[in-house]
């Protein structure tokens, strides 16, 4: 179990790759964790980018919301109403046709990014349905200097239209009124919690401002090739009772759509920040 020493909680951590991902052992998630435990988990989240917890069989929707709320204000998905009895749960049910099988940072089509999200497995296929995460800070670090110079002070438009979200949600979910579905962000932003520069792209990316669409697409493909390099990624094979928490400010993720049986996941997101670029005067 987690050990408490001098007001601090020492977690039992199993790293999964050198650059991203760790399993946190011997901790029961819920809204009653101590401040010291939350501080330790936050530190692990910032360091490993995505952290996993096994055998959380007793975690309910309400406890999932309460746990996420220890890290900040939980927010409902901007385009999807939460299930009955919950306030901010986003249900991803494969039978509704909602399979987000593309690399992305969450809600880049909004002015504010999510800080982090907590994802819980509800129903799983017998095989397939893994999720991958990438470290967008180490991806930026590994870019050639010539490519860094092209994107360091660039800004791009992100839109739900490019992400295909309206089509995926049409006839299934009700859109919350008054929520913007397009935003402009720096291509490279400074992660507020760590000070790291990180790439801000994903499938809602539309076009770099002041650049043609074909040229924007070429740069997008070059940068994303680094984001999704195996060295920058971790892959998680889900089991009943699994929970994942990822640092949305410096990750992208991808849910594989290689399964035929039903898959249901419940996600709770935590409000984050408006991205700030390497040149703050332009934000």
From TrEMBL:
Species in which this protein is naturally found: Sphingopyxis flava
Q: What is this protein called?
A: Taurine dioxygenase
Pfam families, from UniProt? TauD (PF02668)
TauD/TfdA-like domain ranges (all copies): 13-268
Q: Which InterPro entries match?
A: AtsK-like, TauD-like_sf, TauD/TfdA-like
Q: Name one GO molecular function term.
A: metal ion binding
Question: Is-annotated flag, keyword Kinase?
Answer: no
PANTHER family according to UniProt: ALPHA-KETOGLUTARATE-DEPENDENT SULFATE ESTER DIOXYGENASE (PTHR30468:SF5), ALPHA-KETOGLUTARATE-DEPENDENT SULFONATE DIOXYGENASE (PTHR30468)
Q: Which protein family is named in the record?
A: Belongs to the TfdA dioxygenase family.
Bilayer-crossing regions:
none
Which Gene Ontology cellular component terms are annotated?
Answer: cytoplasm
Required co-factor? Answer: Fe(2+)
């Amino acid at each position: 179990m987690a050990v408490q020493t001098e007001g601090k909680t020492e977690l039992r951590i199993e790293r999964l790759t050198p650059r991203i991902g760790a399993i946190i052992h011997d901790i029961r998630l819920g809204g009653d964790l101590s401040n010291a435990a939350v501080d330790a988990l936050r530190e692990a989240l910032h360091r490993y980018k995505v952290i996993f917890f096994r055998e959380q069989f007793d975690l309910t929707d309400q406890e999932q919301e309460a746990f996420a709320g220890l890290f900040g204000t939980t927010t409902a998905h901007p385009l999807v109403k939460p299930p009955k009895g919950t306030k901010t749960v986003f249900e991803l049910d494969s039978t509704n046709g909602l399979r987000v099988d593309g690399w992305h940072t969450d809600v880049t089509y909004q002015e504010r990014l999510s800080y982090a999200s907590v994802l819980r497995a509800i129903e799983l296929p017998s095989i397939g349905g893994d999720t991958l995460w990438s470290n967008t800070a180490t991806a930026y670090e590994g870019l050639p200097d010539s490519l860094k110079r092209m994107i360091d002070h660039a800004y791009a438009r992100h839109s739900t239209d490019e992400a295909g979200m309206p089509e995926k949600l049409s006839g299934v979910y009700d859109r919350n009124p008054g929520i913007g579905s397009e935003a402009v962000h720096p291509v490279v932003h400074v992660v507020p919690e760590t000070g790291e520069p990180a790439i801000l792209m994903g499938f809602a990316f539309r076009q770099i401002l002041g650049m043609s669409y074909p040229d924007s697409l070429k740069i997008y493909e070059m940068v994303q090739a680094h984001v999704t390099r195996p060295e920058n990624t971790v892959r998680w094979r889900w089991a009943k009772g699994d929970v994942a928490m990822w640092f949305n400010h410096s990750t992208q993720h991808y849910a594989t759509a290689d399964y035929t049986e039903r898959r249901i996941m419940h996600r709770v997101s935590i409000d984050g920040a408006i991205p700030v670029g390497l040149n703050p005067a332009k934000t």
